[in-house]
Each structure stands twice: as structure tokens, then as C-alpha cells.
Amino acid sequence: MRPRIGYKKLAAVGVAAVVGVASTIALTSGSASASPVFGYSGYSYGTDVETGLANSGPQVVSKFGCTTDATKADKNDLATANVNQQAIARTVKTDTHAFNDKSGTGVTSTATAADVKVGNLLTLTGVKTTTTARYSKGQLSYTGDTSFAGVKIGNIAVPSLLKPGPNTKVAVPGLGYIVLNRVGGVKTASGIYSYAQAVVLHATVKNQFIPQGVDVAVLKTRAEISKPATALVIGSAYGTQAKADKLVVSGPTSLQTTCQGTEGKTVKVAVGELNIPKVAYVGGVYTTKKGAIGEDKSYIDFTSHVAGVKVGNLSIGAIESAASAWKTKDGKAGVSSSSSIASIKVGNKTYPVKTGENATLDIPGVAKLTFNQVMRQKRYIEVNALVIDVYSLNTKVIVGHSAAGVVS
């Protein structure tokens, strides 16, 4: 009997690698030293459900990420932003743009709404929130702020909240509480990011507008700038992902991504064994990332580890993959990848694990397996240790994904 749906303690991953394939590309752009680059990223959301409603993602989105283009910009307008089929914010506009001018270089993200309403419990009008992350004269800084034209709690106007201080908490009868002007910034050795949110709704009591226990951020902005570096680092790692046609059946497990690296520290994300309903049982999964950006060298390493996967009577042993990318100030760069799979069985029959990139094995009536699926672009590499095309389910299961690249 398969374990019940849910997470359990991470199973130990023992790797008896039957196949270990590695590939490396060396990329050079001449001997001249490359100029350091800045990294820009940011977003503006109309609304974003932070807990409790998995099917209600960000709305009225403007965003971009991991770019060296100081002219990058995105805008979005929408009449309303809905949560739980309720019109929470109306006449919403979002804007995120990078800049490079006399004030420095960085990113500004802004979101506005004509009004934000939760039934007759809360009414905010003329809402604007903005945040900026900036690098100027060797220094990192940020600003963030929110303002309102009008604030009413129930039927009572509260003029003292038109320009609230940072992280102002206010009780709202019939809803729970709100936090106005939630702002902050985080500085690292690689750069700085800042955030500003006009209002965060915390539904702590039962009401007809937002389910109890759900938090909703309204007009949510973020801006990020990196220090000058030889390159930005990008990539991702996850254990498994399942798709039926174009529909995602199960999102990436233990997903990790990056734009600025980890300041040279190893970051690990793990989940225990789990079931992808009607598709597969997955053993313990963990991923790692490690990297840094700097004026002399930028690099990133991702790895993915899966204890095993079962799809029907198909059993796959321990699966691993890795991807790396780097670039130095003299213009030299490279990428590499590897993958390994311990074993493949259908019932009591063992199948060979094929070597080489993009090798395939067809198991009639069961699945098509693609081993060490590698995709390359300039200074970027992506590897899926195993791709399982399940015939009976018309489903594709990706196992052991790692990707890494540098942008300059």
C-alpha cells in the first residue's frame, strides 16, 4: 500500500549511480575585461493572496526579473482585482521600471487604486504605494511609502490614517485587522531589495468577504538592485513536476530559483515523500543552490535529489541532477550539467539506464523515458535527469530538474 497523501520526514537518498553523465561548455568573449553590470528586478501586484487560497494568485501584475537592462519596464491596468469572487480593489494600475539617471540606478515599483473595499467593513480611496531600491555613489538605499485620500472603518472616517507610519496595525470589526503601509528593505553583500504594500487584510473572524484565516496583500510592490558584478546568476532546481497536456497537475517540488546567488552559502529545501494524485508516488526530495555575484567572478550551482518515483508498476531508483554556470571579469565563462539514475524496474523486470544526452527508452504500454534531457542557450544550461511520458495518463512527469546560467 502506498503511503497516504501528505509529507513525511525526508527519506535518506542513497545514490548508487548507474549513469553519471557530465557535459561542459567553455564560452569566451575575448581577453578584454568586461565592464561590471547591475541587476534589476521588481514587481507590482494589485492583489496577492498570501495564505489560504491556493487558486487565487497575484492579479494586475507588472514585473520583470534578472535583467541588466536599465530601461526595462512593465505596466498593467485592470478595472477590478477580485479575491474570493469579491471586488477588493477597483481601477487598479501597476508600474515597474528600471532607471539609470543622476539619482543613481535602480528600480521603482508603483501600484494605485481608486478604492479598496471589503463590503461595508473597510473603505480606502485614492490609494497609492511605491518603493524604490537604488545604488548611487557606491551606496545602496531604499524608500517605500503609502498614502490614501480617504480611510473609513465601518462608517467612521479616520483622517489620521491618510499618511500612516510604517506597518500601522488597525483593528477592523467584522474582519480582524489590517496593516497599512507595510514597508521594509533587506540589504545583502550582493545588493538590496525593498517592498511596500498599501494594506494587508487579515481575516481572523468569519465574514462574507474573505475566508477566515486568509491574508490578502493589496497593492503589493517590490524593487531590487544588485551591486556591480561581472554577471548576474540565474537558474532553478526542483524535484518533480507533472503536466497533463498543458495543465500543471503538480507544481515543482522543493523549488529554488535565484537572481543574485546566496553569498556563497549552500541553501537547502526539502520535503518528505508525497503523492501526486492519480499520477505518481514520490520519495523524499531536496534541492540545493550555492553561488555569488562579484566584480571578479559570478557563479551558481544547483542540484536536485529525489529518493525515488513510482508511476503505476514503474519504479525508478534514486535520481540526481546538477547544473552550474560561471563568468569571470576577463570575459571567460562556462556551464556544465550532470545527472544520474540508480535503477528502473517494471514489476520484477529491470531495464537498463541509458547513457548520453537525451537518450530514450520505450516501455510498451507503460511509458517513454528520456534520460539526461539537456537544453542549452548561450551561457545557460538546463538538465532534467528523467522525463516520464505516461501513456495511460497522457501525462509528463519531470524528475530531477536543475538549470544554471549567467547574464551580463
From TrEMBL:
Keyword entries, A-Z: Signal
Signal peptide bounds: 1-34
NCBIfam families for this protein: choice_anch_P
Protein name (Swiss-Prot/TrEMBL): Uncharacterized protein
Species this chain originates from: Kribbella solani
